[in-house]
Amino acid sequence: MSPPVDRRSQILATAAELFATRGFHGVSVADLGAACGISGPALYKHFSSKQAVLAEMLVSISEELLRVGGERVAEAAGPEAAVAALVDWHVDFALRHRPLIVVQDRDWESLPDDARERVRTLQREYVDLWAAQLRRVDRRLDLPTARAMAHAAFGLINSTPHSGLLPDARMQELLTRMALGALTARPPRHRGRR
Q: Which of 76, 113, 114, 153 registers the highest number of CB atoms within 10 A of its CB?
């Protein structure tokens, strides 16, 4: 016997696929219900609105990225291992959740204000988790530079919806190698005016 379907999780996964394909505004509650095998009005037993679906989707992925990232850092033997663990985690997440990356990027403005602020807060904490480890690896890095490096690595890794031209195992190896190469490259020294 298969385990019972968690209806909320099913709705979130289905919504991610639909929103990624058609955009948040291109999907009606009826469309979402039909794709989940329930009526549109039955969706309201689980979520108060389509915006609530989007909010839970994006808040929960931000929480997961931060929680698991923190666990990976705590388990790492040192800062280099922590950076490698963060890259490995983010690459794995990006390859498994391409639709969520598309939705996060494209439908951000459709989030309710409170959810947008919560996602921003979680994302800042996640960036700072990376930045702290990068600064432990290279003590010369200031915080703004380390944050910029983390954002640049996210941009590379989060390109998976568009750059996933290889089988996932090969993409994982390529993205990991490229991200680690970028993060461990020594940044150029600032040049003052002569």
A: 153
Tell me whether residue 18 is in a domain.
no
Q: Is the CA virtual torsion 75, 77, 82, 84 positive or negative?
A: negative
For 50-108, the pLDDT digits (tens) are: 999 999 999 999 999 999 999 999 999 999 999 999 999 999 999 999 999 999 999 98
**What is the count of structural domains for the chain?**
1
Residue 38 located in a structural domain: no
Whether 114 is in a domain gets the answer yes
Record the tokens describing residue 115, joined without a space: 């959810």
Domain that holds residue 178: 52-184
Q: Specify whether the CB–CB gap between 157 and 90 falls below 8 A.
A: yes
Euclidean distance between CA atoms 76 and 150, whole angstroms: 18
Query: Measuring CA to CA, which residue among 190, 194, 76 is closest to residue 144?
Result: 190
CB contact at 8 A, 86 and 69: yes
pTM: 0.87
Of 157, 179, 154, 175, nearest in space to 166 by CA: 175
Tens of pLDDT along 103-134? Answer: 999 998 999 999 999 999 999 999 999 999 99
